[in-house]
């Protein structure tokens, strides 16, 4: 592969994927294609070498911009999405536009441009909640919130393009991802940056919901493995192997930021809050992938990154985010 188009590459995971590709594949040129919604941020790509990286601002729903950007690309990796569950609970129209119709446009334009491989970045949330054990790729999706439903619908368009047109489409379902440059609406960067400022940490419900934490570089290596070695039409889970209750995560963040439990603010639960996510990663491991980041090290490095990069998150938290935060939490 010589040239890859990364849609949504100015977001959290997409920008980490761009950095990883530029670092590990010196022959590659990367085109980042991004609409720069509230969570897209060119500061996330500040380290990308301009000799090997091009940025195109565009909506994945706009074929007139996307089509030309895809010319000459060997692959497209789609990260572009509305990604926050709480926002989808306040209205799902943008989620359907990007995560369903937008994915269809990516597939259609990839087919027309003769792009050899399409990788759809999806989520473990499509399976829904599981009390015990872990979902495998053969289990039926049972999305339980509008965000997850839109991601599951987008996946189905991928399957359809494979079946109908023979397009090489591979899908990944990653678990809860953490690391540098994550937009601070998500629990981990929200709690870290609030704790650094001595602000309350709004913990939903009883704090006993379980998430499986995956370091962003491990997630990106998993996507890279599926892109290069995955079979067409197949789905690959990417688990972190680090299940934690939200209350445990919160206590760890308080320890690492030197704060105490008086900052925990129990708030009303998220409606339809999925209790536990868990996925089995054997299928991707069989292709040679394994997570490398140890949880204790990963969380410590991540908290340190937010301590060292105050300018990055303060700029975000003083913008559109303030209004969102007030609406969401009334704090
Ligand atoms: P993010 O919100 O940080 O980034 C999304 C990016 O997509 C932003 O740069 C945004 O500007 C761009 N975008 C949104 N709509 C667009 C459009 N219509 N056209 C072009 N660009 C558009 O999200 P993230 O956390 O980096 O998630 C990336 C992908 O990974 C998503 O598909 C998400 O569903 C999936 N995922 C996320 C996690 C997680 O824990 N964050 C876990 C598993 C899967
Ligand atoms: O599992 C993968 C998914 O992980 C991705 O597909 C999504 O894009 C990503 O946002 C994430 O979804 P979650 O809903 O699990 O992440 P979030 O950070 O919003 O919440 C994690 C847990 O923390 C969840 O149980 C809800 C809880 N929470 C969240 C927020 C924002 C709180 O207790 N308080 C909060 O303020």
Describe this structure in words.
This protein has 331 residues and is an alpha/beta fold. It folds into two domains: 3-177 and 214-238, Rossmann fold (3-Layer(aba) Sandwich), CATH 3.40.50.720; 184-211 and 245-274 and 297-329, UDP-galactose 4-epimerase, domain 1 (Alpha-Beta Complex). The protein is built from twelve helices and 13 strands. It has helices at residues 12-24, 63-70, 85-89, 93-113, 146-165, 187-196, 216-229, 246-256, 282-285, 295-308, 310-317, 320-329, and strands spanning 3-7, 29-34, 53-57, 75-78, 117-123, 169-174, 177-178, 201-204, 210-212, 214-215, 235-238, 243-245, 264-267. Strand 1, helix 1 and strand 2 form a beta-alpha-beta unit. The structure holds nicotinamide-adenine-dinucleotide and 2'deoxy-thymidine-5'-diphospho-alpha-D-glucose (DAU). Nicotinamide-adenine-dinucleotide (NAD) binds next to helix 1, helix 4 and strand 5. 2'deoxy-thymidine-5'-diphospho-alpha-D-glucose is lined by residues 83-86, 123-125, 175-176, 186-187, 190, 202-204, 209, 211, 246, 270, 277.
From the structure above, extract its key features.
331 residues, Rossmann fold, UDP-galactose 4-epimerase, domain 1, two-stranded parallel ribbon, binds nicotinamide-adenine-dinucleotide
